Every structure is written in structure tokens, then in C-alpha cells.
User: Which sequence fits this backbone?
């Protein structure tokens, strides 16, 4: 594997399968009474978050601690960044602290890439602007594989606010690498202009795609990033692109429902669908810790896992 994880496009098929297979092994740790390995003892992982995040930050923190790494949580609010310190100055501070890995979430697309040029440690992109979120795509693929088996030939439908979604882009890239067939479903106003270059199909009709889908992933409508011009009303959006009980009835029996969270219940997904046996939403959160353990483990050069997990 490369030294950084900036984009899902950085991962070859072998890289991606190595992470997923390693996560499978590490999942055994979560079944133990003591959920810890000594693998990264003496290593320092810095969580550098310029945007609010609950699940992703806690997930990375739990992952690093389960591998016995020292964790420093750096929130941009209340730090020198809020006084005008630049990303480069912050990077130099982290470098002076001897960070072995920096997990960064930033509002600007490309920030993790810039950071990787300034620090000697590994950089993991935990979400940059509307660009990418590769570990979310990995945990989603891990969840799909646990429910459905190998992803070659599987049909994955991603629905909703693709334009503002870093999760959608990373999922399209990774799932294509893993051999799945991805279809994006959204109103034309919520698709990026570059979508023609993505390795996926595009549809505007959710009902026609559902019967063929093995996975239906609903995206959060990111109200904070948009104004009302993207669709007429929330009710109209929900009517055309929301996943409710009637739409779920069109899916085949083994098909699963996913959501990267946080959800707008009642808008893009009905509460009864989110809480149904088809839903993997709670599993995705749990699998996030395991998958991020695998990423940190492999980036920071963990030894062979075989002797540590019995």
C-alpha cells in the first residue's frame, strides 16, 4: 500500500482487498472482552478536524486506541487556526510533535493532498470538502461484503444529493475497482457536471432501478450546503427520491439499504426503512472502527496479523 490514503482512486484492487481482508481479521478483536492489540504502541496518530464530525472522529480515535497508538485530538475551533494560522503552519507543528499519522477533515477539497507534501507521517483523508471520503467507502464496501459476499457484478444504486457528497465519489471509485456496477440516481440539479467522467451509470428514475439493485445507498440531503433552488420542495424531493416502504417492496429479498449518516428521517429515508432488517446503518458505524483500524494498521506498517489474532 502507498504511504497515504487521500483518494479511493489511490487504491488498486489488491490494496482494497487487503484492507477489507485485514478488517475481517481485526473484526475478531471486537468480539473479545479486551478489544486491544499492541501493534501500534509508541506511534502517534493526530486527528486534525477543521469541520465538525462526531462519528468519523470518534471512529478514528477508537481505531487508533484499539491498536495501542497515542492519540492527539486537534480541533480547529479554539486552536491557533481560528486565530489565522495556516494549514502549513499547523502541519509544521504536527511534524515537530512527531506525528506518525495525521487524519484530516477539512472544508477545502485537496487539503489532505497539500498536507501530505508537508509532513513525513502518513496522511488519511477523513473528508475534504465535497471531494472524497475514502474510509467511508471502505467501510461501506466492508459492510456490503459481509452481507452479500464478493462484490464482483453486484449492482449498487446511490441515491440523492450526489453534488455535495464526498461519500458518493469515493464509493463510485472504490466499488468500480472492486467490480461492482454503480448507478447514481438524483435530480439533474444534484449531479456534478463532471459525472460523465465517473465510472458509473446515471438515472433519474428511482423506481425503475430498484428491482435490479443489490444495494440501495441513500445520501443525506445536505441542506447546509444548498439553497432551495436545487429542487422545488422537500415534499416533492421525498416523493420522487425518498426511500419509503412502498419503494422497498420493489427490491429483491436479499437487497440491503445503506446510509452514511447522519440521516434526515422522513426525507430521503423513511424511519421504518432505516430501522428495518434490510438496513445496515448501525452495522456501518461499527464497521467503521474495524475498517479504520485496518487502514491505520497497514499504513503504519503493522507486523503480520497472524500471530496477534488467535
Assistant:
Amino acid at each position: 500500500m502507498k504511504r497515504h490514503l487521500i483518494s479511493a482512486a489511490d487504491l488498486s484492487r489488491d490494496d482494497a482487498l487487503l484492507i477489507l481482508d485485514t478488517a475481517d481479521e481485526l473484526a475478531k478483536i471486537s468480539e473479545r472482552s479486551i478489544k486491544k492489540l499492541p501493534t501500534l504502541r509508541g506511534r502517534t496518530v493526530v486527528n486534525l478536524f477543521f469541520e465538525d464530525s462526531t462519528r468519523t472522529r470518534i471512529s478514528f480515535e477508537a481505531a487508533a486506541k484499539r491498536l495501542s497508538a497515542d492519540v492527539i485530538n486537534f480541533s480547529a475551533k479554539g486552536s491557533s487556526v481560528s486565530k489565522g494560522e495556516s494549514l502549513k503552519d499547523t502541519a509544521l507543528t504536527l511534524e515537530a510533535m512527531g506525528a506518525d499519522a495525521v487524519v484530516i477533515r477539512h472544508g477545502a477539497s485537496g487539503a489532505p493532498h497539500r498536507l501530505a507534501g508537508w509532513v513525513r507521517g502518513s496522511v488519511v483523508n477523513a473528508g475534504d470538502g465535497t471531494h472524497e471520503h475514502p474510509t467511508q467507502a471502505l467501510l461501506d464496501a466492508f459492510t456490503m461484503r459481509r452481507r452479500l459476499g464478493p462484490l464482483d457484478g453486484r449492482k449498487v444504486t446511490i441515491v440523492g444529493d450526489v453534488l455535495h457528497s464526498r461519500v458518493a465519489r469515493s464509493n463510485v471509485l472504490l466499488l468500480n475497482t472492486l467490480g461492482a456496477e454503480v448507478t447514481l440516481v438524483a435530480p439533474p440539479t444534484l449531479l456534478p457536471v463532471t459525472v460523465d467522467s465517473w465510472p458509473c451509470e446515471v438515472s433519474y428514475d428511482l423506481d425503475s432501478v430498484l428491482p435490479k439493485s443489490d444495494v440501495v445507498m441513500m445520501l443525506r440531503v445536505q441542506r447546509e450546503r444548498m439553497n432551495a433552488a436545487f429542487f422545488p420542495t422537500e415534499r416533492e424531493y421525498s416523493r420522487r427520491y425518498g426511500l419509503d416502504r412502498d419503494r422497498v417492496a420493489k427490491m429483491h429479498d436479499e437487497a440491503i439499504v445503506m446510509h452514511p449518516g447522519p440521516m434526515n428521517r422522513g426525507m430521503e429515508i423513511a424511519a421504518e426503512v432505516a430501522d428495518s432488517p434490510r438496513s445496515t446503518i448501525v452495522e456501518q458505524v461499527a464497521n467503521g472502527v474495524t475498517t479504520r483500524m485496518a487502514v491505520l494498521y497497514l499504513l503504519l506498517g503493522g507486523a503480520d496479523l497472524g500471530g496477534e489474532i488467535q
